[in-house]
Request: fold
Amino acid sequence: MKTLVTGANGFVGSAVARLLLDKGYDVRVLVRSDSDRRNFKGLDIEIIEGDLRDSQSLKLAVTGCNKLFHIAADYRLWIPDPENMYKTNVDGTRNLIMAAAEVGVEKIVYTSSVATLGINKDGTASNETTPVSIDNMIGHYKRSKFLAEETVHELIKEKSCPVTIVNPSTPVGPRDIKPTPTGKIILDTIRKRMPAYVDTGLNIVHVDDVANGHLLAMDKGEVGERYILGGDNMTLASILEYICVNQNMTPPTIKLPHNLILPIAWFMERIAEITHKEPRATVDGVNMSKKMMFFSSDKAKEKLGYQSRPGVEGLKDAIDWFNAENYL
Reply:
């Protein structure tokens, strides 16, 4: 039997697909016809072309599979037409899981995000039970992932769909081809486009550790439960300092107030509406950075046997990969 991976051309998805192959799994991937396929070039996988918004292609993709990793998502902090994001992240997730359940897929791991979780106001690490509501979701990406995870819980309860949920924090490492927003921070820092910073924090985890957490969730995760797959809680200042020291650069020393950047981000978004190019700063991104996005993976460690290496190792591997691939 085959294991289906959606989003295998992306950052986390490609790491999961590679790990599955290393462990001897028969892997099928679902990708759009126009997708960038560099991340699985040369891999021994079966490719099915389709779209999360196309139910017929989803039925074709899941038929003959006994396991499913649903990792694909529209991950952007700025989008001119948010409707498509909801169709992909919410409706697409519902359609895929329903199609998988109908053909008898035995186990599904759904990749959510720590973006759907609550944040402690005192800056301490949050966990899977930290209180949160949709009113706490900043921006369309967070709202769409929150609604998608609610949809998954409904399918588990009402349709008995065999789904375990994982919530990766902020992955870094090799094969960040897009790159992700965090990858852009790394690149902007090395390119000397990060002269200042704001007071915020992220949970940094190596993408390969996140991939391993997915397989652990498939093997040991309970249906209906969710598990944070994270690493080290780091301030943005410490992240930038590590990148700069690694590259023999002087770290930025100017800390800007969030509210000073908000009007700049607003102006950049207005320009983006004309140029159709993603702005370097967004209002949602600035508002998100007002919180320390720190998380605990204790549940995954205890229940799944999950482990993660130091976050700086992920940063180093990301820098090395960007250098090797001439992103700089």
